[in-house]
Amino acid sequence: MALHAKPIDHLIEALSRLPGIGKKTASRLAFYILRSSPSEAQELARAILDVKEKIHLCSTCFNLTDEDPCRICQDERRSREIFCVVEGPNDLIAIENTGVFNGRYHVLHGTISPLEGVGPDDIKIKELMERLQKEKISEVILATNPTVEGGATALYLTDLIKSLGVKVTRIAYGIPMGSEIEYSDGMTLSKALEGRREI
């Protein structure tokens, strides 16, 4: 027998499918939404729909954006000669929040992981290489996570990029092995970027 009215159970079930949200937290969120005003609930619903309807990949760097190219790619004040290659949009945001990096980005949307059936063709490596051949780049910073997959992807990219005569650096390991960039604090990320080394 259901404990709540069907719409409440449905909302709890939907919220509990979100990462990191268990049944207890989903229940608290559902009752918070239930107690909120109709305009607040509509604003939340509209924000969710807007993300699904308006967000797409930048055709240049593959960051998430609502305009094309994205704001970072459009920014003329940023260095055009340095790329920072990251695994995902959350990593880009984490690096941007440090305020240390002033170049442009390339978002891979994953890492090479043969065990999970993810090869070089399944992430944005081909697009990166096309950009490097078209644009005048002096350095590529590889900011993949310090995991087995992140390391393997960095090694694979190093060979490809060096064949173009472009300097390749990797962020320093102030970030603990096995952790993820998006969860690192700003100071650690700043030091990792500053301490990058050539590969």
Number of domains: 2
Query: What distance separates the N and C termini?
Result: 61 Å
Overall geometry comes to elongated
In N-to-C order, the SSE pattern is HHHEEHEHEHEHEHE
Helix tally?
Answer: 8
Strand content: 5-15%
CATH architecture of the largest domain: 3-Layer(aba) Sandwich
Q: What does the average pLDDT come to?
A: 91
Helix and strand composition category: alpha/beta
Overall number of strands: 7
**Major sheet: arrangement of strands:** 4-3-5-6-7
What CATH calls the topology of the largest domain is Dna Topoisomerase Vi A Subunit, Chain: A, domain 2
Chart the SSEs and their pairings.
Elements: H1 6-16, H2 23-35, H3 38-54, E1 56-57, E2 64-65, H4 71-74, E3 82-86, H5 89-98, E4 104-107, H6 125-134, E5 139-143, H7 148-162, E6 167-170, H8 186-194, E7 197-198
Parallel strand pairs: 3-4, 3-5, 5-6
Antiparallel strand pairs: 1-2, 6-7
Concise summary:
The chain is of the alpha/beta class and about 200 residues long.
Characterization of the model:
- The structure is a single chain.
- It contains eight helices and seven strands, in the order H-H-H-E-E-H-E-H-E-H-E-H-E-H-E.
- Helix 1 packs across helix 2 and helix 5 crosses helix 8.
- The strands form two sheets. A five-stranded mixed beta sheet has the order 4-3-5-6-7.
- The protein has 199 residues and is an alpha/beta fold.
